[in-house]
Amino acid sequence: MTEHLSSNVVNYLVWRYLQEAGYAKAALALAHDWNDEPETLPFADKVQTHTLLRMLQDGLWLDDMRAAASNGTEERRYQFGRDHGRPFARYNGDARRRKTLSSRRVRKEEVNGTAADGDAPARKKKKGSNEAQARVNGDMEIETNGAPAESEAIVSDADSVIEEEVAPLVTTLSLGESGGLQTEKITDLGPQTTFLRIDEPGATVVHTEWSPTEPQLLLTAGESLLRIYHIPNSSQTQPDAPTEPVSRDLDIGLNHPTVTAVAWTLPGEALIGTLEDMTADSGEKMTKGKLYHLSEGGLQTRLVTAVLGSVFALRYNAPANLLLSVCSTDVNSRICVWKEIKQEPLYSAQTDHPVFAAEWMNDSTFVVAGYGILEVYEITAENKLVVQKSFTTSTRWENLRYDSVCNIIACSSASDETHPKLGLILPGDTEIRTHEFAPGEDITGLEFQPITNPASHNADSHRLLATSSDSGFWTVQFWNAKKPFENVQRFSSGSVIEIAFSPDGYLLAAAGTDTVTFWDPEVGIAKAKWKPADNDEQKWDTTLPDARDTELEHLLRWDADGKKLAYKLGNQVAIINFWSMNSTAQKV
């Protein structure tokens, strides 16, 4: 006997769908016309997330099975065609960001012309990502006799509905997930934009990094690209000051190099890791890694050293004037600490694991993470580099962050993990605490909220850690890192590919394909958004990845003053300006 459907049940399922997909105004209108307190209905606590979507998917599955069983005598009852209207430009889940397994494998295979024997399988393509939404009109007839409730198609359709709009949500659902209610007008930052385009054949933008000491300098680098931009402030009043960005290409004497890592150091100076395609005397193709020092704003370049493998991480410790570099192949890594950028490092260590991420903890301690490795290193009083702590792990860690306020290490796993993991290490821990995400919910962003005055943080305060996902329902989540894994805020913002806190921690920028939403992490509501204006379409290309020759990779970078945000999408960079606001805290 099938479940009985009443108007209350149908209305409640529609109301829940509208809430979960972010159509809160429509949900409020439905509740006003039908029931002011839908959650008080006796069956409300039995309804799980995405129930309506699962029911619809089950119905479509049964309809397809019925048509198949008729041997062609009956057609499918529900057919919506291939054209569902103009698709929202979204991130292709296969088009992984730079620091993902696929791109890393390519780099590793290029090292010295040898193929890497990495055992990590290539990630499977998500299904149904571009067929977003089936709308049901008229009478509804639903049977529930054994169709699977959880399937890949169901997850894909749920993702697509959520990702249809990357827009600030008005949250009214009070089921303990989010208590924010959008009441104030959201600031539109679209008109305050400067666009940079890199159109040279063969050039690909991989890195965009602001100078920490000269906020008007932006270094862009990647494949066959090394360029510095001077971005004028929107508030500049000097009559002879340039009003448009001025760029200068930097020549390091290599043939179409790929820049794999970037770190600004002293004013006007930076370090870059490169890969160069070369041909040996025997005619064999090979790729060579090198470390270069840029000075005088890039006017002077100097080769520091050749490296084995690729430079995956460069981290500068300004108070100690130390540079940390990590070079990795598919089987091992070399970790170096440089005091002065000469030909030999001050300290070095070898590991038998690929290392991809590193963070300074203080002037003499740093942490590294990679495939099957998470270790803390210390420079001792005897001037030796030793392993202070080694955490047993088999996880492929790709992202790493350290919070100096509470001495907490956070890490997230690679996209090829069956269950993506969030890891936390608190002071005194001897093991990594982990939280598993659902399969396919890759962690695309991992950031601690900056605290400008650490003395203001007390023992009872939350220590906010933000994560983002490009799929699943809750695509932006805030955790209390001091109490693993306590969820403080979470909400759906469509597919989120990159996140970045403003320097003062007041705003979290969350980027989709052509929209950046700025969230207040304390209350979980949107304060501002950026989307290119209609007349900027020629300046900002949001063509879907499967219609392009190259993947759309994303980056978000705030300048040191919090007045400009660089949003990189593919080979274009939007400089989102906040100069019309007095301060970050007064932006909205």
Automatic annotation (TrEMBL):
Chief location: nucleus
Keyword Signal: no
Protein name from the UniProt record: LisH domain-containing protein
GO MF: transcription corepressor activity
Region annotation (Disordered) ranges: 99-137
Any one GO BP annotation for this protein: regulation of transcription by RNA polymerase II
GO cellular component, one term: Set3 complex
PROSITE patterns, alphabetized: LISH
Matches recorded under InterPro entries: Ebi-like, LisH, WD40/YVTN_repeat-like_dom_sf, WD40_repeat_dom_sf, WD40_rpt
Localization per Swiss-Prot or TrEMBL: Nucleus
Top-level taxonomy: Eukaryota, Fungi, Dikarya, Ascomycota, Pezizomycotina
Record's keyword terms, sorted: Nucleus, Repeat, WD repeat
Any one Pfam family match given in the protein's UniProt record, by short name: LisH
